[in-house]
Design a protein that fits this description.
- The protein has 4 helices and no strands.
- The chain is mainly alpha-helical.
- The chain folds into 2 domains: about 90 residues; about 50 residues.
- The longest helix is centred in the middle third of the chain and has 69 residues.
Length: about 180
């Protein structure tokens, strides 16, 4: 009977210890099984080694192991909850920091605008507008030159493709003329 009992307990322990990792009571379940196995072994060593002692040891060990495993589960849950709270607080802090940086940039832009408004004259405005027009004209000229160069490049590529096609046709005709 002892061999059958221990074999059954060991098989159950193996089965439950490889069970689902997401089981919220995994520590309790493992504690019950480990406690039952160790309690059964201890019960078998005490007294006359009868099945009653083994069974009593297994029951007591399982109960104590279950309590200990349950405490481990609760500690694990508390640690996970604390980590989740820390992560949430960190993300909130990052968002607040980003908002603060945006507010600082907006205030700096407003400060610069206010500074310009206090010091700028009509001549400064005209000079800025002339410079903007000059830079826009320069940009337009460069864009036009770029577009024209791209058009030339496309035309050259098309011409090269036509040349390659004509050379292939010539080579084919020469092969036919030469009896090939």
């Amino acid at each position: 009977m002892n061999k059958l009992f221990f074999s059954t307990i060991l098989l159950l322990a193996l089965f439950f210890s490889t069970g689902c990792q997401s089981n919220p009571n995994r520590g309790r379940d493992i504690g019950i099984l480990a406690g039952a196995v160790l309690g059964g072994i201890a019960g078998g060593q005490m007294g006359d080694g009868s099945n009653t002692n083994v069974l009593a040891g297994a029951v007591i060990g399982g109960a104590l192991g279950g309590v200990a495993g349950d405490q481990l589960d609760k500690r694990k849950e508390a640690l996970e909850a604390a980590e989740a709270q820390r992560q949430y607080e960190y993300e909130q802090e990052v968002q607040e920091q980003d908002k603060l940086e945006q507010d600082i940039k907006a205030l700096e832009a407003k400060r610069i605008r206010d500074e310009i408004a206090r010091k700028a004259t009509s001549e400064d405005v005209k000079a800025a507008e002339r410079e903007a027009a000059r830079v826009e004209l320069e940009l337009a000229v460069k864009k036009k030159a770029y577009e024209e160069s791209q058009a030339r490049a496309r035309r050259i590529q098309e011409a090269q493709e036509r040349i390659a096609k004509a050379q292939e046709e010539l080579a084919e005709m020469e092969r036919q003329e030469n009896g090939g």
